[in-house]
Amino acid sequence: MAPTADKKNLFGLPQGDLEAHFVAQGQKPFHARQVMRWIYQRGVAEFASMTDLSKSLRAALESGADVQKPEVLSRHDSSDGTVKWLFSSGSGQAVESVFIPEPARGTLCISSQVGCALDCSFCATGAQGFNRNLTTAEIIGQVWHANQMLPRRSNGEFAVTNVVFMGMGEPLANYRNLLPAIELLLSDFAFGLSRRRVTVSTSGIVPHIERLGDERNVALAVSLHAASDALRDTLVPINRIHPIAELLDACWRYAAKHANRFITFEYVMLRDVNDSLQQADELAQLLAKRPAKVNLIPFNPFPGNLYKRSSAETIRQFQARLRHHGLVTTTRRTRGDDIDAACGQLAGRVSDRVRVRLSEKNLRTATA
Ligand code: SAH
Ligand code: SF4
Question: How far, in Å, are 29, 71, 106 from residue 97 at the CA level?
Fold first, then answer.
């Protein structure tokens, strides 16, 4: 829906802001909960159809507010059931989301930024550069749209049972809009997901890991990818500001803030770069006896990138070695690669990008 300048967009407003809106209009705050249920649980964007609101309230809403739904540019369906959507972010920009169906759950991998400034050397989004942060409405709009488009599960639940912030962008670099998005994902009046079913994946912006632990404490995944600072500096440049020891300290504090909280460490398998058994031993040394799980991600190639994926046998041996050290380790199955929807392949459309040179100052600015 095209934005209407003089109307307040209620889509993506957290409950407190929506209540404040009603109070400012001389209305009762509980209408916020009614409107949230209509928008997020029944998928209704027209006030006229919100039948538990009085006629006069509906008329007042019509004249002063609207519900701007996300604008979808395309949908691609993979032969393995994975679905990818391209969402417009205006001015020719676009971001992607991927739905991954599994028997026990439906996971939506969502974007948090148009591009990414952190420039990890193996990532298609990083290669695109950074344009801007998504708004809260744009973040949760991806979940809303998937739920509206996909058939419900056999138990009547929405198709999206799990949300992972593993699409385009670094979610903790967009902390201000991430927080209300998480609130809506968890709210009983909106998407109603449990904390365990919402995962924020970060390349390691330490101060915001601390804040997230205090303010939301959803599941945390950390893109580690290397066990030494020398290597991680080259793969994940934010490591030059927040090196491994500092990052892991923040992770253990995060885990300690919530009972039974494990941190998932993502580790992209790059042939002859980080996949030796000695590197597996070093990784185990960092994580063993900690509340840690490891998720190995076979590298997904994209045009213009020089890395190669480790062989299946190397990945199997690396995993076996970590397990030998007592670490719970899984290998991510590659899904949706026939539609370029696999991890790290999401490029969307990012133009007019802000060129960020990786000086320390710029990295700090990009993640502030
Ligand atoms: N910015 C966040 C979340 C988005 S990336 C982060 O970095 O954690 C989601 C995951 O995909 C990260 O673990 C990232 O390292 C991984 N990834 C990026 N490029 C990849 C590629 N080409 N192949 C496999 N995984 C990749
Ligand atoms: Fe950004 Fe994550 Fe890609 Fe790194 S891996 S460039 S932090 S999206």
Answer: 33, 13, 13
pLDDT for 367 equals 58
User: 336-345: per-residue pLDDT in tens?
Assistant: 878 877 766 6
- Domains of the chain, earliest start first: 8-66 (1.10.150.530), 72-366 (3.20.20.70)
Q: Is 116 a catalytic residue?
A: no
Tokens of 90: 């205006």
Residue 126: both structure tokens together: 């990083």
* pLDDT for position 355: 46
User: Residue 74 — φ and ψ, nearest 5°?
Assistant: -160, 165
Look at residue 249 and give its three-state secondary structure.
helix
Ligand 2, atom nearest to 113 Cα: 8
Q: Quick one: CA dihedral 26, 29, 35, 40, positive or negative?
A: positive
CA distances, 157 to each of 99, 107, 162, 191, 219 (Å): 15, 13, 12, 10, 21
- Residues whose beta carbon lies within 6 Å of some atom of ligand 1: 122-123, 166, 170, 201-203, 223, 266, 268, 297, 299-300, 343-344
| Alpha carbon 193 to its chain's center | 14
275 C-beta closer than 6 A to ligand 2: no
Each as own residue / partner, the long-range contacts of residues 315-323 (CB below 8 Å, 24 or more positions apart, any chain) are 315/269, 315/275, 317/277, 318/269, 318/275, 318/277, 318/279, 318/280, 321/277, 321/280, 321/281, 321/284, 322/280, 322/283, 322/284, 322/294
Interatomic CA distance for residues 93 and 273, integer angstroms:
33
Q: Is the CB of 96 under 6 A from ligand 2?
A: no
Confirm whether pTM is higher than 0.85. Answer: yes
